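Running this now, will post back.
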Amino acid sequence: MDVSGDNRPARRARSGVRTATLLCAAAALVAAVIPASAQPRAVPAPAPDPIVVVDCFAEAQVRPDEYLLACGDGNNRLVELRWSSWGPETATATGTDMVNDCSPNCAAGRFRAYPVTVTLSAPESWPDQPGTERYTMIRLVYTDTAPAPVAKDVSYKLVY
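Update: finished.
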């Protein structure tokens, strides 16, 4: 109480303490709630780009449905490819190798179907696309007969 008998400063002090207490309680509640809901979440690292197979047109393909083997004349094409794996070392599919028999010549020849298992392998950096790897080998295993004069199990270097 001051000399005049006024009790206001003490009331103000109690009021200020009450306000501070309420503010502290509110801040504690907010602090308890916010960290649970606003915690920064760990963002998973992006998955590395898959290894690609490069087609005749220098386009990167992942699990293509078709793949042209004879880029120059189109007389050999893998079709209906169903990929069972596409990994960091190899990729495997089953499908059909459509091969022109070129009889009596390629323009008049017929395309014949040969069931085949395809394996891509030997990934290497792709010079045309830094940071991208591409398969550099293809293996064809014919599950029935192979087109003459090709062996039933043959591998080729992919040059694209």
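The longest helix spans residues 8-38. More later if anyone needs it.
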